[in-house]
Amino acid sequence: MTNIGIVGTGNMGGMLAEVMMDQQSIPQQQMYIYNRTKERSTELQTRYPSINITQDIRELLSKTETVFLCVRPNQYKSLVNELKKHLTLEHVVATITSPVSLKDLETLPARRIVRTVPTILNRTGKAPLLLTFGNHWTNKEKTLFEQWLQTFSEPISITDDTLRISSDFISCGPAFISYLLEQFILAGVKETNITVENAEMLTEKMIISYGHLLGEGHFNFQGLREKVNVPGGITGKGLKVLEKFSEGMFEELIQETHHKYAEDKKEMATLFQGKTDM
C-alpha cells in the first residue's frame, strides 16, 4: 500500500491509524495525519514517532495516495472546499461518515470513492468494517483494496439501504451492550453484597468467553440462550423480566438512530449543492 493519509485522529481516526500500523498494514513512515488541533497529532506521534504530521489538507494530499476522512458530519463544510481544491483524479478517498453519500463525494476530483465504516472493535485487528464502493472502481482495484483492508479488519460489503442498521449493530452496538452490562453490574452491587470490582471482573470474563463461544461456532444466540435456560431454572425467571421490560425498547432505539441519520444526511447533502463557500 502506498502512503496513507488520515484526516482527523479522534476516537475512530486515531484507532484506525493505530491498528493499521500495529498490524503492519502500513509502515509508520508512510502514515500522514492532519488534525485541526495539533495536540491530537502530537499525542499520536509520541506513540508512533515515525509518522508524519502535516500542517494542512493541501500538504497531506500532496504526500498521499489514499486518504481516510475521519471527521464528524458538522466538520465537513470547510473540508469539502479543501478537497475540491487539492484532490487529484488518482486519489482514493475513503469516508467513515455514514450520512455522506458516495454519489455526492463522487463530485470531487478523485475517481475512486469508498465508504469504510469502522467499529471500535477494529482495534483488535479482526472486527467487521462496513464497505461500500463508489461507481468508478475496476474489479481489480476493488480486490486489491479489499485485500489490504483484510490486513487489519474483516471488510463486509453492504448496500446503502442497510447502512444505518448495519452501523447500529457493529459501530453503536458495543456502546449499547456496554451500557446494558453496566446497568446489570450496578444492580448486582445494589441488590447484593458483591463489590463493583468483582462484578466488573466476572462480567468482563463472561463477555470475553461468550465471544469465544460464538467465534468458535459452538452456539448461535438462540442456541446459547436455550442451552442455559433449562426448564424450571433460575435463568428462565430472569428472562421473563427482560421480556417484560424490553418490549418495544429496541424498536424505539432503531427509530431514534435512523431519525438522527436522516437529519445528518439532509445536512450533508447541502454541502454538495453549491453551498460550501457560504
TrEMBL record:
Q: Which domain of life is it from?
A: Bacteria
Q: Which InterPro entries match?
A: 6-PGluconate_DH-like_C_sf (IPR008927), NAD(P)-bd_dom_sf (IPR036291), P5C_Rdtase_cat_N (IPR028939), P5CR_dimer (IPR029036), Pyrroline-COOH_reductase (IPR000304)
Stretches assigned to the Pyrroline-5-carboxylate reductase catalytic N-terminal domain: 4-96
Per UniProt, residues of the Pyrroline-5-carboxylate reductase dimerisation domain are: 163-263
Show the GO MF annotations: pyrroline-5-carboxylate reductase activity
Tell me which Gene Ontology terms the entry assigns under biological process.
L-proline biosynthetic process
User: What family is it from?
Assistant: Belongs to the pyrroline-5-carboxylate reductase family.
The protein in question is named Late competence protein ComER
